[in-house]
Amino acid sequence: MFILNKNLAVWFSSIMIIFIYLMNLITTTLAQPEFNSWDCVEAANYTVNSTYQRNLDTTLDALPTTNRGLGFYKLSIGQGNDTVNSVALCRGDINPDVCDRCLNDSIVKLRQLCPNEKEAVGYYDYCMVKYSNQVILRRMDIRFYVYLADTQNATDIDQFNSDLGQLMRNLRGDAAAGGEQQKFASGNTTGPNFSTIYGLVQCTPDLSEKQCSDCLEDIISRIGSWFNGKVGGRILLPMCNFRYDTY
């Protein structure tokens, strides 16, 4: 029989404690991945233990319960200057479990990154979340665009841009015509050298058909100048977004 001596047992126990700590740390980190992009709007801050903070806490705690099945969440709580408006949108082709996890991660992460701001927005691959002391729904004003591009160029840039533009505009019409619970469309087309181009577009479903169409047209029209043959890219706004790629 092999018996550990006292010193070796203490050493082994210490190693196991460190290992468990590191595994918990890794698990926590994986559970809250980094945003693709996020912004803390610095125009207005709230004070600790204020009415606004209490309303924000209550709003974000309850926001995940407002989904009606298709990945769109919205909730407003409070009155006057202490009103908190919140909205979240999951990508239209993911399952509800992934959607819920993404939203919960977003809420935790955004509060960490923006601890005192009254307005903030964060984008993951699978969801977007925003809260503000200003009205959010049906708002079309744009503070800034978030755009992410692949580094690789298509072999035939002009043909790629043409094929991609046609695909995205077809998807724009399909998404804009969606109902009050979801405005999402995805599809693919054949690009240069028999490659396949995949695309998806989405609006928050509070937008009217025209608002959604206009929002998507605005960002799709920027593909030629901002991406110009890049084989993958996306533009993200709180009210609409698109993504395309060759996989």
TrEMBL record:
Keyword NAD: no
The keyword NAD belongs to this UniProt entry's keyword annotation: no
Domain of life (superkingdom): Eukaryota
Signal peptide: 1-31
Stored InterPro entries: GNK2, GNK2_sf
Domain Gnk2-homologous per the UniProt entry, residue ranges: 34-136, 142-247
Keyword annotations of the record: Repeat, Signal
Gene3D superfamilies in the record: Gnk2 domain, C-X8-C-X2-C motif (3.30.430.20)
Protein name as catalogued: Gnk2-homologous domain-containing protein
